[in-house]
Structures are given as structure tokens and as C-alpha cells.
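Supplementary Methods S3. Complex input for the zinc ion-bound model.
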Amino acid sequence: MPGNAQLSIDNLVIEAEECRRLGIGGIILFGIPEEKDEHASGAYASDGITQRAVRALKREVPELLVITDVCNCEYTSHGHCGLIVDGDVSNDETLKWLSKTAVSHAEAGADIVAPSDMMDGRVAAIRAALDANGHFKTPILSYAAKYASAFYGPFREAAESTPQFGDRRSYQMDPGNAREAMREIAADLEEGADMIMVKPAMPYLDILREARRAIDVPLGAYQVSGEFSMIMAAAANGWLDLESTMIESLTSIRRAGADFTLTYFAKAASALL
Ligand code: PBG
Ligand code: ZN
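Predicted complex, serialized as C-alpha cells:
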């Protein structure tokens, strides 16, 4: 994606410095390990790329809020978000990986952990593991309403995490189903989520609005890679004005009810705002 690249830890620290200067509320990390394997070993290794990155950020730019994405698809050789058993993702086996990963991120100093895998029961499992390891104060930002979306395409290319077989529809949600989002959100809050996210953002503003009506915990929206890329491509072709389209897209997400937005426009928008 234009203006986005995989970063080494030294360059990440420079980028984080800039984010802090711009007044951005925080950053979220997605790790890409040197080697991917069937057991997502890099996801929960104490010296994994994300764990090392968090430690460097907390040492060099301590004031910047650091959220870590907790999932396995960037770390598995097959690109799925969980352990494969008999050709399918095993929900319950995957909870063990997610719990270990969240604890290792908290140990490294992450301010917030954000599970994005969509396995059932993962918020409860992660909360129990964090508490059992003394991380009572680490909040969970749950990607509670995450749809099986075509708009993740550019991210998967960047993260080298496109599933090698099948798709993610057995764990991510059906784009036609609005009511399931409300059940997922209610379940995650019941399990102990501190904050909720809707993803993608613009094609799901109705879900965001409905979530806003139903809950009063902090609610976020994730303007995903495909949303960003569409606007960038149209601007590059001279079809849309970049600045005003960007600001309008972010305004619409805010208007629908988001307290905070994850966006690839963060630096550009902050500079303007
Ligand atoms: C993986 C994950 C995805 C994104 C964030 N975490 C992709 C997916 O589910 O395939 C997408 C982000 C984006 O498109 O910007 N769990
Ligand atoms: Zn995943």
C-alpha cells in the first residue's frame, strides 16, 4: 500500500517517534516473523518480533500507547488464524495459542492486547491467562464484530498471510448478518472485553451505529487496508480529492459512533487536524 511498509525495529522506533510528535493516540503492531510454521511459534515466543518491538517502543517512546494485534495468521505457514486439525481450524486448541501470545505481549509491556482471530471464547481465555500471570491491568480490545471481508486483501498481501487453502468464513462473520454482530459483542463483553471494535468500518457503519446504541464501553472502528487503498487509488488517478475524501471518510466513522478509529490515514489526518 502506498506509504506503508514492513518495518524493522529500528525504523519502527523512528516511526513511533513521529506518531507521538503528531499527537496520534496510539499504534497497533502486527508482527511478521522471519519463519512461519504450523504452530505459529513466532506468535508467542518471548523473543518474537512483536515482543521485541514492544520492548523497544516502551524503552524508546514510552509515552506512546502500544496495542498489539493478537492473532496467528501472520505466523502460520498456512495463513489461517488458528491450529489446523483434520483440515479445519480448531477453535478450542487455538485458544491456548492466543492466551500464551497475549501474556507474552503483556510481559513485554503492551498497553492493550487486541485479539482479532474471532475464535469463540477467546476473550474469556485471554482474560483468565492474563490474570493468572499477574496482568490484571492489561485491557482487552476485542475485534468483536469482524466480518469475512474482501477489503482485507492489501493487508494480507503486506503481511504475507493469505490463507493457503479455504477461507476465513468459518470464524469471521457473514457480511449479510447484522444481528450476529450484536451477539458477538454481547458475548465478548460478558467474557470481559474492555473495548469493542467493528471491522471493516465504512461498509459496516450500520453495525457501528447499532453497537453504539447497545453498549457504552469504548467503541472503535477499523478502517481497513482495502478502504484505504480504494481512496488512495482514486486519488492517484485524479478521480477523488485525497484530503477531503480522507477527512470525510473518517468523519463518517466518527458520526456513526466510533470513539476511536484505527486507520492507515492516521499520520496524514493528524497532520491536517
Ligand atoms: C488478521 C487480521 C487481518 C486484518 C487485521 N488483522 C486480516 C484478516 O483477517 O485476514 C486486516 C487489516 C486490514 O485489512 O487493514 N487476523
Ligand atoms: Zn488472523
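Residues 69, 71, 73, 81, 116-117, 152, 155-156, 168, 224-225 surround PBG (ligand 1) (CB under 6 Å). The beta strands are 27-29, 66-70, 84-85, 88-89, 112-115, 141-146, 195-199, 219-223, 260-263.
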